[in-house]
Amino acid sequence: MGRVHNLIEQHGRQGALSFVEDRKEVDVAFDFMSDETGGVGFLFSGWCQAALPHRKQPDDHVWVIETDHTKLLVEPGSLHTSKGVVRVGVPYGSRARLILLYLQTEAIKTNSREIELGRSLRVWLGKLGVSIGGKSMKEVRDQALRLSRCRMTFQVAKGRQTGIVNQNIVDTALFTNDDTGSLLETVKLSEGFFEQLKHHPVPLQESAIRAISNNSQALDIYCWLSYRLHALPGDCQISWPALYAQFGRSYARLRKFRENFLDSLKIALAVYPEADVTATEQGLILRQSNPAVPKRLARKAGLTIAE
């Protein structure tokens, strides 16, 4: 268990604030520790190694993340309107990540490519503490449209083998219209993406997602650590330039990235008490840790965690 979690157990939420400078770290850890709702979500392992942008990109911008083991290419889609064909930019931010997580979680739990959204998505987002009205719902609609239109390519290397997933995230999407605009009601995942998801799902604690649902970088780090830590054979050192290549695409300078990354790392570790991670001047040291989702919960959800 991490230091902040021990402090909360010993001194309570308010008492822990006397020992920790970052109030957000304490608040997130407390919310996670006191969450009794539970639940397990699932994410394709590729999304744990390369992620979407945090902020809106130009509508014609192609998003590329390239690391030693993974390359992600996200291409914007297009939409036919009364004014002609317009570009739909790539998805971004925490809302896009939550929608992706919902789609993949439902696909794994139902073993079906076709997922009903509408009210089900709104209820699920509400459980994560996301407002489902006004500006927030408009953001959800926008990100759902972007996800349904974009095209992505994952290239993942494992040993001497390289696998490529090159197609749309979804095959078909059904929208309905109301007074506030279009709402994505039904999605059918592409067959290739669905097969990759079934073969390489990463279990995540929904209580952790709830606690950091508005922090896209903390979500990325939590998903990455959930994927990496339990499978490490020993200590693993990752340099700041390597972390910058994976997580810093939105930053012009490594120094600014490092500062913000360390802040988000604290938040991610606040919802992963078992994680053994040390930050140094050279980068991060990762050590083998218990999985973010205990194996008994993963088995109960119908998934076996690979050793």
From TrEMBL:
Q: Which domain of life is it from?
A: Bacteria
Name the chain's protein: Plasmid replication initiator
- Provide the species name: Gluconacetobacter dulcium
